[in-house]
Amino acid sequence: GAVVSQHPSRVICKSGTSVKIECRSLDFQATTMFWYRQFPKKSLMLMATSNEGSKATYEQGVEKDKFLINHASLTLSTLTVTSAHPEDSSFYICSARPGTGNTEAFFGQGTRLTVV
Amino acid sequence: GENVEQHPSTLSVQEGDSAVIKCTYSDSASNYFPWYKQELGKRPQLIIDIRSNVGEKKDQRIAVTLNKTAKHFSLHITETQPEDSAVYFCAARPGGGKLIFGQGTELSVKP
Q1: Any idea of the CA torsion for B57, B83, B25, B92, to the nearest 10 degrees?
Q2: Between A and B, how many residue pairs show a Cβ–Cβ distance under 8 A?
Q3: Which of B54, B66, B64, B86 is nearest to B24 (CA)?
């Protein structure tokens, strides 16, 4: 199957700093990628749709100035958590799919963010 | 927007028994319904999926059924094994490629 790689897998940062998470499709091009957030023992909550070459589409209730998304190429989307606070601590995971239609979505390995 | 409800939240079965997890969705435009297995701290792994033009699909011990009229789909695992223990998520794709997930079911298979 297709491979989606996410980096870093774990990051600890201080309150007030920003953290960038990368999501790469290694063997296919993706015009759209998706960012999810998952709290412990909870579901995956869709945060935003990352669109190559244009602005991301954020889900209701997600602060676009807090979670900056950039999709500068067909294989890379980045999520930057700005001015991080302890409540931003979570598991962030991206996904992408090789084509359109009802094809399988592939997930990155996730990033465990801890803000201290 | 799409809303996916999943039940039960926890399920405990004896090894060899069957397990059934049920989901309902709200958006009739949804046309793709995958099921994922997620182990702690890991990425979700697709175990089976079904498209809206199909009513049932089976893959060895795993089967999924879809009732479009009722907006309901279910996961069936037969002959459960301890390694089936994990959190299972259903999802629906309303369009645009995004997936909306159910709340998850923590399945425990006791030897």
Answers
A1: -70
A2: 56
A3: B66
pLDDT tens-digit map of A5-20: 999 999 999 999 999 9
What is the rounded CA–CA span in Å between residue A77 and residue A48?
A: 11
Tell me which DSSP letter residue A105 carries.
P
Q: What residue spans of chain B are helical by DSSP H? A: none
Q: Which residues of A touch B102 (CB under 8 A)?
A: 43
- The first and second tokens of residue A72, run together, are 């500068």
Which residue numbers in chain A have pLDDT < 70?
Answer: 101-102
Can you name the residues that pair with B84 across neighbouring β-strands? none
How far is CA A113 from its chain centroid?
12
CA distance A15 to chain B (A): 23
Closest residue by Cα to residue A49 from A64, A39, A27: A64
Distance between CA atoms of B47 and B61, rounded to whole angstroms?
11
Residue carrying the six token digits 């926890």 = B10
How far CA B72 is from CA of A14, B5, B69, B92, in Å, comes to: 44, 10, 8, 11
Our CA-based measurement puts residue A84 at a distance from the nearest CA of chain B, in whole angstroms, of 21
